[in-house]
Structures are given as structure tokens and as C-alpha cells.
Amino acid sequence: MKNRNRLFAACVATVWLAVYACTAPHEKSGIVGNPPAPGFDSVGSDPAAIQLADSIIHAMGGRQAWEDTRFIQWNFFDRRDLTWDKHTGWVRIESPGDSTTYLVNVNTHEGKVKIKGTEFTEGDTLTSLLKRAEAIWINDSYWLVMPFKLKDSGVTLKYLGEDTLANATYYNILQLTFNEVGNTPQNKYKLYVDLKEKLVKYWAFYPSADNDTAAFVRPWDNYQKYGTILLSADRSDNGGPKRVKVPDTLPQDFFVKF
Predict the structure, then answer these.
(1) Mean pLDDT across the stretch 25-44?
(2) Exposure letters 174-211 (e unless 16+ CB within 10 A, then b)
(3) Residue 65's pLDDT band (boundaries 50, 70, 90)?
(4) Which pLDDT belongs to residue 1?
(5) E-only strand ranges, 20-128
(6) What is the pLDDT of residue 146?
(7) What are the backbone angles phi and psi of residue 38, rounded to the nearest 5°?
(8) What is the Cα–Cα distance from 227 to 102, expressed in whole angstroms?
(9) What's the per-residue H, E or C state across 67-89?
(10) Cβ contact 204:216 at 8 Å
(11) Which residues contact 245 (CB under 8 A, 6 or more apart)?
(12) Taking residues 97-109, what's their average pLDDT?
């Protein structure tokens, strides 16, 4: 694997000014740019990395489009189906393999679970099951919407220059590390970002920030427009999120009835 650093850090500010000059209409009426979440490591993140992250969000439809998107449905590795109401925090997870349906609010941590016809609505068992449901949602949603979470609380971004994969194509490399957030804060990711499109094309996962060798490098491809945002699903390695939908509405009782 080769490495070369071009003048990205020097010219990115000029590129970013050009990006804002042609900002999509939905960004002009509300959120401008990609403001960080409280707790994002703006001090530890270098400016080139932050600007690259912002260019990714812009390429995928913009922050305002992401905030306006309410419902997202997807299947994860043919194992389970998830529906997420981003505006309320409610998530429905249906896991046919163990005949389990979770209804959980990832903001308030309330909910109920049904396993093989038995419904759990209270007690320590329910608490444990809801924690499991939240862990599933954290993992499965990250595989789908990670590019929109680059400036989340606790995230540190580093620009690592340009690098290649086996296809000999050069990409901008964006590194993510985490400070005491999520279920696995010791993890590290490297994103391979297309030089022109500003879209993530591959991601590399490192179980520990100290690791030099990735546990996997997988494609992040087959972008399609869902509503007003771009998402990568039904990928070329047949892994991760599949059958994505972004419905405008859902039945009123979708997150409260099994």
C-alpha cells in the first residue's frame, strides 16, 4: 500500500469555499454547513479532517436534509429488520432468527420486548433486553449512516493524506477515534474518500486505536438517493445494510404495537 500526501490541507479551504458557493437550497433555509455535536473534539481534530468530513456530508445531501429525514428502514446482513424514527428516538427491531421484536426508545431507554410470544414490559429482564436492543441499533445504524456521524460527541478526526488500496486508486484518508463514547470507544476507523466525489468508498475497522492492521476493509458503495439523502446499501460485498427505505409516514402505532 502506497502513501502520498498532496496539497489537500493547503487547498481544502479554497475547495470548501467553492462547495458553499453552490450549497443546495435545503441547506440555505435552515442549518448551514455541518455544525458539530456538543462534545465533538474540535481541538484534537485537525482542520483538514474537519473540512473533509463536512465535504462528505455535503456530497450526501447536506446536514439539513439529514435532520429533516425522519424514518429510515433497513435490513442488516439478512439477520434483522430495523425501523428508526430519528425525530422521537423510537426503534423497532424484528429478529426472525430468535423470534424477537424489540420496541425501544434510544433517547429515553423505555420500551418493551416480545420473544416467542412472551411479552416483557417491566423488570430486570426487560432492562437487560432493552440494553441489548440499543446495542443492536448502535451497531446496525453505524453501518448505514456513519458518514452523518463524523462530528458526533467524543469523535476525533485526523486527515492522513492520500493512500491506495488494491485497486491502485488514490483516496483521501480520514481517521476516526473515540473518547469514552459508544459501546466500543477503543475502536478506530479509517475512511477512504473519493478525491472528486467526496464520498466514502471503503472503510477499515481497527478493534483498537493502537492497531496497525485493520480487522477488515470493506466497500462502502452503491450509493442511492433515499428521499433527500444519499446512502450506501446493498453493497458489492453483499454485507451490511440492505433493502433501505425512507418512508414519509408510518402507522401511528408502529412503535408501540407488536
Answers:
(1) 81
(2) bbbbbeeebeeeebbbbbbbbeeebbbbbbbebeeeee
(3) very high
(4) 47
(5) 71-76, 80-85, 90-95, 100-105, 111-115, 118-120
(6) 98
(7) -55, 130
(8) 26
(9) HHCCEEEEEECCCEEEEEECCCC
(10) yes
(11) 72, 73, 74, 226
(12) 98
- Work out the average pLDDT over 40-61: 98
| Contact predicate 11/49, CB 8 Å | no
C-beta contacts of 217-221 below 8 A and 24+ residues apart: 217/165, 220/191
Q: Which residues contact 55 (CB under 8 A, 6 or more apart)?
A: 12, 15, 16, 19, 198
Give the separation between CA 48 and CA 189, rounded to whole angstroms. 17
Q: From its phi and psi, is residue 225 left (phi > 0), alpha (psi between -120 and 50) or beta?
A: beta
Would you state the pLDDT for residue 166? 82
pTM listed for this prediction = 0.86
Per this entry, what is the length of the chain? Answer: 258
Q: Are the C-beta atoms of 130 and 114 separated by less than 8 Å?
A: no
Angle CA 254–60–63, to nearest 5: 70
Handedness of CA 209, 170, 193, 165 (dihedral sign): negative
User: CA–CA separation, 64 vs 61, rounded Å?
Assistant: 8
Strand partners, 203: 191, 218
Nearest to 102 by CA among 144, 124, 134: 134
Cell of 24: 443546495
Residue type, 31: I
